[in-house]
Amino acid sequence: MKTYYLLINILLLSALCASCSKEEGGSTPEPELPATPKLSIELNSRDIATKADDDYTPTKELEGIYDYYIYVVDATTNQVEAAVSGTAQSVDKVSVDDIEVEEGKKYVFAFANLKRIESDPVITKILNLKEGVSADEILSNDQRTQAVSFFAGEETNPLLVDGTHHIPMSALMDSTEVSAKERGYVKLDLYRMFAKIEFEFTNKYEGEVVIEKIEMDGFQNGNVYLMPHKFFPAMEAKMEEDGSGNYEAQNSRDYAPFLPDGSYGEIVQPIVLNGKTITLDAAPKKTEGSTPTYPKSSDHIYYVNETDLATTREQTPSTRFQISLLMTMGDEKVTKPISLPDHSYTRRNDHMIIPITISDYTFELAVGNSRAPIGGYPKYMQAGVADDFTCTLEYAGKTELFFNLRDVTGKLVEGLTEKDYDLTLVDDPNGLIAKDSDGQPDLTLESVGDGTGTITTTITNAYGTAILSLKIKLLDRTLSYTIYLVRERENTGN
Predict the structure, then answer these.
(1) Staple 322 to which of 70, 158, 217, 481, CB 3.0 to 4.6 Å?
(2) Domain 38-191 has CATH 1.10.3720.10
(3) Is this model's pTM higher than 0.85 or not?
């Protein structure tokens, strides 16, 4: 795992003392006055936090620094003492030396790629800042003061990133002391203001698949704050402590994004990706004793606003981001909806990788928790595209999971019995699932035939996540599904 910290290093160089000599007559020359204080600043393009093997993905060409803006602001007067801008020579790093400033406490603000949003009122004011001008109501060390928008009119996500539309970036150093006798060095990490979504498709359907449209629902297109979240250094340190492949820190609501009022939980028009179609070759027919290599397609990348589906930052939402695919499978037009497990927010500079498996079978799951409304029937979630389900439980007590397995035509799969199902409890660290009289998990599966059945369990008063694995054996393959049972304190009435 790569290690990344928001580093602020001040290098102090001893001022050269003027040599003193005594002239004839005993007079002593006045000491040499100190030189004008100077500051060197280095900007780095922060690698993107991702749920991948290395936890970070390196900067791609269109995701780096193209033009930059640096402002040194006096902390007492809030006047701009230095305003430096230019074109970056590298997408990864910018170095500016010998910026002349006065002694005292300073704030250093840095930005990149602001031209794409120069019409935003906040950005217009920033780009017009000059030396000697007050930065009041324009630049502040308080992260939650200025909000910007990347959308105009009726635009919806995704955000365009290409050779002329680069990702805006920002950085802030709370303060540094500058002395007339010392040379200062400041190193800042620029964080992208967008989140990155990447799809990885695998085709297990024995026929060609053409993905014609992708819809993503839940990403907000309102305002976001100009400056990066101040929790980033703490989050990154915790990620290093957790170790590669452990995403506890990334999933913690301690590090959910801060958003302006009105942006929490905002559900916008679905993101409709109507660009090039994605064609996946037919999966090879499975033969006895062989392990087929399924056709894959990766690097389908889109950029979105950071979003939190909770109504306030402290709450845990009951919804997840939704995705729907419109595909042609053989001669059939098929729409596949999925819910993204473990994703209720995405931060700026995050890289969300979404693996999607396309199968000719659709698994449907519905949750019946105790205290269900009278006459209420649970809604089915589908997994013909993804193999994971997240089931949020409101109450302890008896819980039933109703399932259906359908083929590509939508018909229930015939001929399945209980011996064709393998249900196991993979993990339950908090004891969410009760034990039976033999000390075994209270977990049963009953098949009622034709691909339909019920999983029954008892949920304790604990909070946390239990993970179930369900395997369904067919004539030519075994289907595998993962079910996350989640009970969160914020959502309970107990």
Answers:
(1) 217
(2) no
(3) no
